[in-house]
Amino acid sequence: MSNFAATPADAGTDVQFPTSNVDVPLPWLAQVWKQSISQRAARFGLAWISVVAFCAIFAPLLANSFPIAIKMNGRWSSPFLHQLTATDVTLPILTLLCGILCFVRRIGFLSKIYTMLIATVIVGSLAFIFIRPPNTPRETYRLLERAGRLQSVVRTPIPYTFDDRLYDQFSADHPHPWAPSHDHWMGTEKFGADITSQMIYACRIAMAIGFISTGISVLIGIVFGGLMGYFVGIVDLLGMRVIEIVGAIPTIYLLLIFVAAFPDYRSIYLIMAIIGLTSWTGDARFVRAEFLKLRNQEFVHAAIAAGLPLRSVLFKHLLPNALAPLLVSASFGIAGAILSESTLSFLGLGIPVGDASWGALLNEAVSAGGGFIWWLATYPGLAIFLTVLSYNFIGEAVRDALDPKLRERS
Amino acid sequence: MPDPLLQISDLNVAFETARGLIRPVRDVSLSIYPGQTVAVVGESGCGKSVTAMSILRLLPSPPSKVLSGSIMFAGRDLVTVPENQMQKIRGKEIAMIFQEPMTSLNPVYSIGDQIAEAVVLHQHVGSREGLRIAEQSLRDVGIADAHRRLREYPHEMSGGMRQRIMIAMALSCKPKLLIADEPTTALDVTIQAQILELLRKVQQQTGMSIMLITHDLGVVAENADVVAVMYASRIVETATVEELFDRPQHPYTQGLFRSIPKFGVTSKRLETIPGTVPNPTKFPPGCKFHTRCDRLNGDPLCSTVEPLLREVSPGHWASCHHAEHFAESPVTVPQLQHKREDYIPLATEVQA
Question: A299 and B106: CB-CB below 8 Å?
Answer without folding.
Answer: yes
